[in-house]
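Z., the sequence and structure:
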Amino acid sequence: MTDASEPFKPKYRRVLLKLSGEAFGQGGKSSGISIDETMNVARQIKQVLDRGVQLAVVVGGGNILRGAQFSGGGSIVNVVTADYMGMLATILNGLALQEALEKLQCETRLLTAIRMETVAEPYIRRRAMRHLEKGRVVILAGGTGNPGVTTDTAAALRGWELGCEILLKATRVDGVYSDDPEKNPHAVKYDKLTYQQVVRDNLRVMDISAIDRCREAKLPILVLDYKQKDSIDKAIAGHTIGTIVGDFGEPRTS
């Protein structure tokens, strides 16, 4: 187990952390923003920041609103408008995370792909990189600013743009399984997977666009359970945790 006071050399210098909306909701449910859950995530981020790691965080908004909620035939909301509404939800989470981190004395910057200068800076790649170099947590909200693009794809794109060495996808599951482990007790957990295997076996890691972007950028993806104690810190330290997706051979199972 790692300890915040225990010195070690992080394996990664610059990291992209993808947080889905469920990380901000109470018990992983679509129930708005939980102060306790948000502070729990903020403490883990501070632990990593104290190691000297440069950290960018892409936030989702599913705890507040999902565009799919309006996809039914009877919906009065156009699907494009629904996607924009979902992007605005990510900014609410970004603001909450920013406040939580600054209460822990972490310097932050909230950047959004949808311009709203009164609450956040516009996303500009070079500006984001300067913030990282100055030791600030860069919170990225608003997806890519385009409808029809998931926050997974936004995370893969930002990870590539910002020169991150790994993309950590924080979930409520401790890795990637052959089937839904909550429904199938015989589901097998993978330690390693190639990008090709994820696509071939239709494994629910990230959407295909995100996987393709990571594959082209040679950006590994590590899927982990952020609820496990020190899981993000352990991942950055290079401990064996979760499931890593990259240029590997056949997957091993645990």
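The CA atoms of residues 61 and 93 lie 7 Å apart. The first helix runs from residue 35 to 49.

Let me know what you think.
H.
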